[in-house]
Amino acid sequence: MNRLLRSPARRVLALLVLSGCAAPAPPAPAPASATQAGGELARWQARAQAVTITRDDWGIAHVRGRTDADAVFGMMYAQAEDDFNRVERNFLVSLGRLAEAEGESAVWQDVRQRLFIDHDTLRAQYAASPAWLRSLMDAWADGLNFYLHTHPQVTPRAIRRFEPWMALSFSEGSIGADIERVSLRDLAAFYGTRQVAARQPVPDTGAFKEQGGSNGIAIAPGNTANGRALLLINPHTSFFFRAELHATSDEGLNAYGAATWGQFFIYQGFNDRLGWMHTTSGVDAVDEFLETVAERGGRHVYRYGAEERPVTTDTVTVSVRGADGALGRRSITVFRTHHGPVVREQDGRWVAVAMMNTPVEALSQSYLRTRARTLAEFRRALELRANSSNATVYADADGNIAYFHPQFIPRRDDRFDYTRPVDGSDPATDWRGLHALDESPGMVNPATGWIQNTNNTPYSAAGESSPRPERFARYMDTYGENARGLHALQLLRGRRGWTLQGLIDAAYDPHMPGFDLVLPPLLRAYDALPAGDPRRARLAEPVAALRGWDRRWDAASVPTSLAIFYGTRLWGEHGGRAPGVAERGPTATTLHWAAAALTPEQHLEALVFAVERLEREFGSWRTPWGEINRFQRITGDVVHPFSDAGPSIPVGFTHGHWGSLASFAAAPRNGSRRWYGTSGNSFVAAVEFGRDSVRARAVTAGGESGDPGSRHFNDQAERYAAGRLRDVYFYPGQLRGHTERVYRPGQ
């Protein structure tokens, strides 16, 4: 993608100058002694004196710096205090160095990363970056290195010194990066014969994966009780993937929300003037190209139109921790075409993959949107067009609400189906630059007065005021509608008088409209059973329970258990045949297909299976949902060792697949009987924007600290499970009486 943006640093700097978007001033140059022995420590200590960290009574860090760079220094120090393990691991992954810590099982993950992340290239891009961005990256590295210096008892797994350029390797903030679409097994099969070790065995429960996530809702002042805009921030990620914190500076930074461990910007959150919520989008921004390859004179060439072009090669070398603890090296020759690196083979043709790889723009955009003060400034940050996968729901103190589609969208010939590999030998399939922002399905201040996105189609984002799909290329959306989207539309249409608490209540509304679709066919199938069919007696009571159920989750509900076990079986057996959005249309969900296409026998079989499984595993099909669905946090391990023998708490809300806006993706773990959640609601915030103040409430899964010995390791668990959000302390006066500690880094 650098062929599209050939000079990232010059492009970013020029855009900032032309747009007038405020960039923080870089700090004064370090004195010469900072490059000498002891000088680095003196620089860190001087920086620490410009930073104050206030921990509130939930352990959340409120970081204050003289400059933005000072604030970044403090943010990273505070993050490392809370969970250095996750900070380091994220950069082991992003730098392609995980095998240095985890050994052979991570080799191909590192190779995949190194296909796109070259350390020397990142060093050069850092050197060419605008001075303001370099100052932030310098402070980022200094904050982490100062933490390690002041905590000699902490032993990094591999990264013993952070370099400023490393920040460019992890610049966008979302979970499930584009690169994860490249199959590790296919990559290993193409470039080597080594097996890819299973990294986290998960039993086959017939469950489905949570669609990459989140809910965002914005409500305009005309629809609220007090004339103030509202914003729901509700990412669905792996638990404990982000820190909650507040960063301010004398230069104007004032951002609160969720920051992905190791990053120096608030990824989903708000400042005193506006807020932003990112949701994974169905835009197609990653493409595969089928290359026709031949050998000519001992070298590989690939066909492109009427010509043959040379396949380029380079060597990827990764370090691998052996069983004895020693580091070895593995070098692999990899192939590339002008489309990108070759990642697998399909039917005798090589497959090259193209995706966004513009780290300077991505890191700049991620930071600058947190500093925007108006809708115009926020939009200018988006003009960097370095967000490939996330839609954004927006609200501000001026009363504006908006929806922005991802900004990195390659312009392509819509005759081709880019959801499948396209013929790379046909020049017509090539990317032709990027779409402008106005060429994607966005909107500002729709007439309905509300916007929602639940990883669903943008063509229902504002109900009747939504963009029309026929105006846009097919590749603008590959997800279509989902059950959470149906739920959001039911809650928002025609409703006025919204309040902050009303928005929170909506975020936890227990209705599951997915079962409005799939239960009626089941009930009809049961009613049609012949009188002598043994299933009529066997299922009579379970069917009666489901027939009388209001399709709302509840921890005390038996029908919820029945429905989830029935639905999990139904989808696990037949969901793989569900058509994509091109076949079912942008407004129909996969559950519409299940209701229409599956046979009565398939529905009945799923219920029989559910009843028998509940009886086998829990002793009775009359088991309340909260006895099954549990939240557990007993260690700070990234891969949590779930156990029925450990303490856990019941959770009422369910997997978002069935339309629960509050999502909890749970399944048996490590041979457990109970189902334990690992993703879904991870951070929830509801924000009200007034012209002179902002008010917010929030909750984080578990707690802020990754240390099981901390009082803040699991102090929010009960609130999380109950949906009882706490007040956010955004202004200094709100911290009075709610402060545990005030200190400087290093104290």
What do you see in this structure?
Helices cover 31% and strands 21% of the residues. With 747 residues, it is α+β, with helices and mostly antiparallel strands. A hairpin with a 7-residue loop joins strand 7 and strand 8. Helix 3 crosses helix 7 (131-150) and helix 13 runs parallel beside helix 18 (590-597).
Q: Strands of the largest sheet, in order across it? A: 21-19-18-9-8-7-6-2-1-30
Class computed from helices, strands and strand pairing: alpha+beta
Low confidence ranges: 1-37, 194-211
- What form results from the Cα inertia axes? globular
Give a count of the beta strands, DSSP E runs of length 2 or more.
30
Helix proportion of residues, in percent? 25-40%
State the major sheet: 10 strands, mixed
The separation of the N and C termini measures 44 Å
Oligomer: single chain
Helices, by number, come to 22
Percent strand equals: 15-25%
Average predicted confidence as pLDDT: 92
Radius of gyration: 26 Å
Core attributes:
31% helix; 747 residues; 22 helices; 30 strands; alpha+beta; 10-stranded mixed β-sheet; 6-stranded antiparallel β-sheet; disordered N terminus; single chain
Quick summary of this structure?
The protein is about 30% helix and about 20% strand. Helix 9 packs antiparallel against helix 10 and helix 13 packs parallel to helix 18 (about 590-595). Mean pLDDT is about 90; it is low at about 1-35 and about 195-210.
